[in-house]
């Protein structure tokens, strides 16, 4: 342990992956676990995308690709930005990576110097603060709560800005809350950042295609801030392609070049077959995945209805992604005689052990009062999971 680098010692393990690992261990022991912890669609990749991958194999796309991605994929992404977002990014401003997580890391490592501050609206995705720490930056958390749909205000952002601020990093739709910022809300945030010419915005839009009402809005659509916005996106969530590992950025060209430079020394170009599959996905009309989106909306409504039957669970109505993020602080201080619940983390472990349901503590996402429940599971599993949770919580007095 003492021989490890300081950076790895400072780094926290992803609690979503840790819960998934613990769930797999229990399943291997024969325990019937319902896993609602991972952010992964339970659908299979659409057939037309798999067909494109087979064709790529037959056409011998099995050699090293360009570091930034195949030209036809970058061109497809450029067209997608124009088609879906009314934003113009040339292929030279696009970098394809091994998942959106690597895309984020490339940008953060390209922009953040030791001591730089990164504004992080909370709740946030688990890897944001850890990647900032890897770059030796400082996460500056801006808190929200369930009463305002987990949205931070422009004034909160303005109040958090200091001479050391380098980035604002957020997602919409948000993981873990499902929160979706409106066009007017994004414009107001952009107006706060615009006068500060040394501050950039990373907009994580990986759940773009899973919005239940209205259309996706990007903060990069505003001309007065666009040259300081980096969009991170990918095919994992919207196209059920988590295992294909394709993410990408649209960014000012100098940031794209910096990301290519880092990627060239870490992974080089990502999987050739996955890239060709991604071309088919991104070129397709977004309506091809509306059935998945509509299923998630129906499951959201089912889960919210079930959770209303549990005393003390406080929920809002997520507008996107596939998570519910209930406030469970009602149970803090309660005990079943063996286990006392002092935190959301305690409750998560209790539900895994007592109800055999895997969820994730909100502490992993910067909120100590909540837990994240993924509804990327069948109706039957959701119904059974909530029944188990309710029965386990009835033991806490």
Structure description:
The protein is α/β, with parallel strands linked by helices and 397 residues long. It has two domains: 6-44 and 289-393, Aspartate Aminotransferase, domain 1 (Alpha-Beta Complex); 63-284, Type I PLP-dependent aspartate aminotransferase-like (Major domain) (Aspartate Aminotransferase, domain 2, 3-Layer(aba) Sandwich). Helices cover 39% and strands 13% of the residues. It contains 13 helices and twelve strands. It has helices spanning 6-10, 15-28, 47-58, 71-85, 100-111, 127-134, 154-160, 183-193, 253-266, 272-283, 290-307, 344-355, 379-393, and strands at residues 34-35, 94-97, 117-122, 138-143, 165-171, 200-204, 229-234, 247-250, 323-324, 357-358, 360-361, 371-374. The strands form three sheets. Strands 2-8-7-6-5-3-4 form a seven-stranded mixed sheet, sandwiched between helices. A three-stranded antiparallel sheet has the order 9-12-11. The chain has a two-stranded parallel ribbon with strand order 1-10. β3, α6 and β4 (138-143) form a beta-alpha-beta unit. The longest helix is centred in the C-terminal third of the chain and has 18 residues, at 290-307. It is globular, with a radius of gyration of 21 Å. It starts with 5 loop residues before the first helix and ends with a helix. The model has no long low-confidence stretch (mean pLDDT 96).
């Amino acid at each position: 342990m003492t021989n490890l680098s300081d950076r790895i010692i400072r780094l926290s393990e992803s609690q979503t992956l840790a819960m998934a690992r613990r769930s797999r261990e229990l399943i291997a022991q024969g325990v019937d676990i319902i896993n609602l912890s991972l952010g992964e669609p339970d659908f299979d990749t659409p057939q037309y995308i798999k067909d494109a991958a087979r064709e790529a194999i037959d056409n011998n796309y099995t050699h090293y690709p360009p570091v930034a991605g195949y030209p036809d994929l970058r061109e497809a992404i450029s067209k997608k930005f124009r088609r879906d977002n009314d934003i113009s990014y040339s292929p030279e401003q696009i970098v394809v990576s091994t998942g959106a997580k690597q895309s984020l890391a490339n940008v953060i490592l390209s922009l953040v110097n030791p001591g730089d501050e990164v504004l992080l609206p909370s709740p946030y995705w688990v890897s944001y603060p850890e990647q900032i720490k890897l770059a030796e930056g400082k996460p500056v958390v801006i808190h929200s709560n369930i009463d305002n749909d987990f949205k931070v205000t422009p004034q909160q952002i303005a109040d958090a800005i200091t001479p050391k601020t380098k980035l604002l990093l957020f997602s919409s739709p948000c993981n873990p809350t499902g929160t979706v910022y409106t066009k007017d809300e994004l414009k107001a945030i952009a107006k706060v950042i615009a006068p500060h010419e040394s501050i950039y915005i990373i907009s994580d839009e990986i759940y773009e295609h899973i919005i239940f009402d209205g259309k996706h809005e990007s903060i990069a659509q505003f001309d007065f801030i666009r040259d300081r916005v980096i969009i991170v996106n990918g095919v994992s969530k919207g196209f059920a392609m988590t295992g294909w590992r394709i993410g990408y950025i649209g960014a000012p060209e100098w940031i794209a070049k910096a990301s290519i430079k880092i990627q060239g020394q870490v992974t080089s170009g990502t999987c050739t077959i996955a890239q060709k599959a991604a071309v088919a996905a991104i070129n397709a009309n977004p309506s091809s995945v509306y059935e998945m989106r509509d299923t998630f909306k129906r499951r959201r409504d089912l889960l919210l209805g079930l959770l209303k039957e549990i005393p003390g669970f406080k929920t809002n109505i997520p507008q996107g992604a596939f998570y519910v993020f209930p406030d469970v602080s009602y149970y803090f201080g309660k005990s079943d005689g063996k286990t006392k619940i002092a935190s959301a983390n305690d409750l998560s472990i209790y539900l895994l052990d007592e109800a055999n349901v895997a969820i994730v503590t909100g502490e992993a996402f910067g909120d100590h009062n909540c837990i994240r429940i993924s509804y990327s599971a069948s109706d039957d599993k959701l119904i059974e999971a909530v029944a188990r949770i309710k029965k386990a919580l009835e033991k806490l007095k």
